[in-house]
């Protein structure tokens, strides 16, 4: 497929160069015949060069789009194959490896699409778009590693989360203790005054 795309591009470039040369030759002939002044010749030759440049850029863009489409087709075929392998394997490590390859392929496709959009001038901030894509891939990779960890990895992750959330756990214990104190005060008031459900301000 890559060879075919290059052949088409090379053929288009040959046509562009031949047409440019033919137009310049025609302009030279018209100058010799007195139909164009030298200034007119220079101006029109500039237009011919601009046209050839625009055609070259279009041919290059067509080539890039064709290459991206071909690569994406190949990658999607690989994705389908890997997904089938992931569904059939019973080995956890093999499945994790396959899922990582699937994730990498998915982001290769997204990166190619982003590069194409940037080249077409559709992205205002290319650096930011690339950074966001890398951040999403890093987050998805971390999530995959966490979800696919073995028993020991899950235990270590649990310890890490416990350390990070220790402040919340302490606050929860304090709230429970305060609730118990309040309930004790409420019970004492009920016993002493014979009042059920005393006002909250009495228990504060």
How many helices in DSSP terms?
Answer: 7
Portion in helices = over 70%
Order of helices and strands: HHHHHHH
Proportion of strand residues: under 5%
The total tally of domains equals 3
Number of strands: 0
Question: Structural class, from helix and strand content?
Answer: mainly alpha
Give the biggest beta sheet: none
Residue stretches low in confidence (pLDDT < 50, at least 5 long) are none
Mean pLDDT figure: 78
SSE map:
Elements: H1 2-32, H2 38-88, H3 92-119, H4 126-147, H5 151-164, H6 166-193, H7 200-203
Helix pairs in contact: 1-2, 2-3, 3-4
Care to describe what's here?
The relative contact order is 0.05. The protein has 7 helices and no strands. The protein has 204 residues and is an all-alpha fold. It folds into 3 domains: 1-64; 89-164, no CATH class; 166-203. The mean pLDDT is 78. It has helices at residues 2-32, 38-88, 92-119, 126-147, 151-164, 166-193, 200-203. Helix 1 packs antiparallel against helix 2 (38-88), helix 2 packs antiparallel against helix 3 (92-119) and helix 3 packs antiparallel against helix 4 (126-147). 87% of the residues lie in helices and 0% in strands.
């Amino acid at each position: 497929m890559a060879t075919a795309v290059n052949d088409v591009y090379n053929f288009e470039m040959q046509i562009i160069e031949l047409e440019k040369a033919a137009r310049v030759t025609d302009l030279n002939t018209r100058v010799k015949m007195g139909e164009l002044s030298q200034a007119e010749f220079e101006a029109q030759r500039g237009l011919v060069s601009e046209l050839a440049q625009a055609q070259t850029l279009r041919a290059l863009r067509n080539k890039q789009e064709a290459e991206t489409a071909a690569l994406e087709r190949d990658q999607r075929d690989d994705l389908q194959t890997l997904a089938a392998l992931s569904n059939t394997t019973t080995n956890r490590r093999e499945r994790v490896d396959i899922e990582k390859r699937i994730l990498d392929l998915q982001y290769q496709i997204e990166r190619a699409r982003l590069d194409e959009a940037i080249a077409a001038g559709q992205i205002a901030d290319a650096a930011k778009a690339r950074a966001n894509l890398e951040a999403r891939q890093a987050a998805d990779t971390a999530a995959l590693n966490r979800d696919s960890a073995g028993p020991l990895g899950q235990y270590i992750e649990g310890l890490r989360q416990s350390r990070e959330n220790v402040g919340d756990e302490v606050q929860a214990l304090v709230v429970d203790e305060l609730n118990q104190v309040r309930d004790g005060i409420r019970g004492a008031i009920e016993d002493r005054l014979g009042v059920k459900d005393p006002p909250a301000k009495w228990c504060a």
